[in-house]
Design brief:
Blueprint (H helix, E strand, L loop, with lengths): L34 H4 L8 H9 L1 H4 L13 H13 L12
The structure holds protoporphyrin IX containing FE.
Length: about 100
Amino acid sequence: MCHTFDKGGRDKLGPNLWNTVGNARAHSDGFGYSDELKGMHNEKWTYDVLNLYIANPHSFAPGNNMSFAGIKNMKERANLIAWLRTLSDDPIPLPAAK
Ligand code: HEM
């Protein structure tokens, strides 16, 4: 209902998420982003930031339009972000082990 994940996939309620990890925020041309996310366009979706956004979209970006409560479980978020990373022609390097 909300997102597509394939290359060139269309936007739905939310933008297509191909090539999101490591890319500029609000990068989907033509999608009607909130001013909140548009205001972050000069910054990237790094692993750390995506983790915060997916944990609680509305505390990370109070004015954003994504009606999703977030995923509280860190391992689930890590697995999801690892998968989102694969949605790219050239996935960014995995984070260095801490
Ligand atoms: C695990 C679930 C989800 C993940 C990982 C996710 C991920 C994302 C990401 C990374 C963005 C920013 C994309 C960009 O900068 O181009 C985004 C935006 C958005 N998502 Fe989601 N999303 C999820 C669930 C949902 C759901 C359930 C909805 C619909 C009810 C939704 C609707 C939206 C909308 C409307 C935006 C644009 C927000 C704005 O412009 O303020 N998402 N999502």
